[in-house]
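Budget justification, computational time. The allocation requested in the original proposal was used primarily to generate structure tokens for proteins on the priority list. As evidence of use, we reproduce two of the resulting records. The first is shown immediately below.
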Amino acid sequence: MQESLKKYENRPSFENTDAYADEYLSLHLPSLGLNHLPLDLSLATHIERLMLQENELVDLPEFMTALFNLTKLVLDRNKFTEIPAIVEQLTTLKLLDMNSLELTEISDSIGRLTALIELGFEQNKITGLSAELSKLTQLRTFSIIYNSVPCLPAGLTVLTNLELLCLHSNRFSEFPAGITSFSRLTKLTISDNFFKKELPNEISRLTTLIELHLDNTGLTTIPTEISLMTQLTTLYINANPFSDLPCNFTNLQKLEDLDISDLQFTYDGLERVFHLQNLTSLLASNIFSKQTKLHPVPASISRLTKLGKMTFGKNGIEVLPKEFFMLTSLHLLHLVENEIREIPPEISMLTKYAEKTTFPFMA
């Protein structure tokens, strides 16, 4: 620890170089078993980034205020049960990482850190959010995954600079209406919550959204307004109880990564998927039961000429159409637990490209 701090006593004068930034503006003290910080740390007043992850810290000392240039503070995997009182005085912070701790709430003091751009409270035991978060108007990234949060405070609609919002694995019972106010949002994950209501039509306002995760949320329909989100490249809607896609789903022509696994699909819905010609990854296992069976596989699958990854297991498929073998961009193909009784010789057109191919009777 002392050796880590000595380098700050006679630092070089090349402040504008990358070497200076990496070596003298950052202090890394991870995985050292620290249960307190030594007073010597207060001498490192010029550091901008302090990484203290995976230690035994339960609080932070008052002398931390001497670090008046600090912009990044990483505290994950320590023993904190609340936000240390001194943190509210570190008003220069732009990034605060308090993931994987034992926090049960986010205190109102968080509202004093108005310079924050990135904030993480992942994998805690948080049951509610402070309305003071609305004061963090510079925030671009906010993640509270794996907590027990049931709703977002109404005032958060002012956080119009948000670009990445991660809410999955909480206790939301409906899609938070305020999210549609985040006009710059590019990524939203809200999977593994259970909605009692459907998606609001206003979701179409998220026209800048590139990545959307709605898997395992209990949705019974997908609104037609989703077709207006034409910048989407990644969409996960798997493990939901709905059985079809809106007719205008084909408008999402920028989609590259689509997961529709564990749905109960119709042929019309699958035809719409096969019209998305820029798909590079399609996860579509268990979308037809043994009773309904996907037979025959629509010939329109040949449109997916850019497809590199495909899972198509548990669909009751008996025969692969000749059009299937036109997908020569495939490098990963899973067809397990179907009813294909023999592998057609044309499969060699695919396997010479594939890194991994699994068939109904292959492990």
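The second record produced under the same allocation is shown here.
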Amino acid sequence: MQHASARLAIQAAIIWTLASAPLLISIAQSQTTPSLSAPKFLYSTDLSHGKVRVFLVNPTSGALTGTGQGPVSGHFVPTRVASDKRGYRLYVINQNSSDLNAYFINRSNGYLSHAPGSPFAIGHTPTDIKVHPAGHYVYVTAQSNWMFAFHVRSNGSLAAVAGSPFATVNKPQALEIDPQGKYLYVSSYPASSTPATSKVEAFTISSTDGALTPIAGSPYVEPNSQSCSNGAWDMAIHPSGNFLILPNMCEGLVVYGIDRATGSLTLIKGSPFAPPGGGFAAGGNVDGIAMDPRGVYFWVTDEYCSSGCTMTTDTWKLNNDRRSYLSREWHGSARSTGSLRSFGQILIRNWRHRFALWRSRPYTSDFGV
């Protein structure tokens, strides 16, 4: 297995914002086809130049074209981005300046404008960001063990939620919120590699003020091997809200069932699930995950390193608690010091075409569709 002690906690982040109609997903019936509007804009962070790049999306072909605005100023080393579900706000975390930019999205042309008071100080290196489904709260994980929560004011500025920051287990790397906005989950990078103790924390989200409360039984210790302790650097929740899937770098796919009444987690029988083939056991990493908005498929990026690194994307099908491996796409090889390294992927919210982007190491704003 590959160790990630020297791996940069950086992600070239992208976000798809929807047309004026919100994304509709049935919570009760996981197999119900959601009503999805076509993608309209794409926003990509340019780490090297401290910019956010704006693209128009062709809803038929998925082709990208620039807008008349050009790159928008961010802060120092912007990494991950998030948007509210309706696509009126964009948020970007900045690694080196330890803060958060907030923007308004012009729904006509995709142009960005800074919200009052932006950027907003975090004071610790941020690692991930998500927006509550209602759009009222923004959550940011930060090293070494913090979760920052912000309330979105009517003028677009951000104010700290009472009690923020909230303590987490050491080195949180990724977070996810269930579709109903009731629960929040955090994946952590373990404090030490002997023994390996990657964990998942679970919180309830107050519907009144957005504050977080640990769920009984949290944190949950992931399946861990003694020789590798990298944890999950990405995570996804099924649109039904019934399953949490973590691409644990060294162990494979860790799948938990979510109790909809309490938010507690139960490890699915047989988990973790390794990608097929012997290459993973010999020297593979599971890096990132993208979930089909219908909840039928999900895609996982894998990295196989020996004298060089090879990237693949695996297609899986999830039917209740059963996973079926479908296919693999090879992205090619690169030297271990090269730029072909994936830190996750996001599925374009247009299931009829099933466009997908995989995130390359963020030294460029060029992405392939």
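A brief technical remark on that second record: Residues 279-283 form the longest helix (5 residues).
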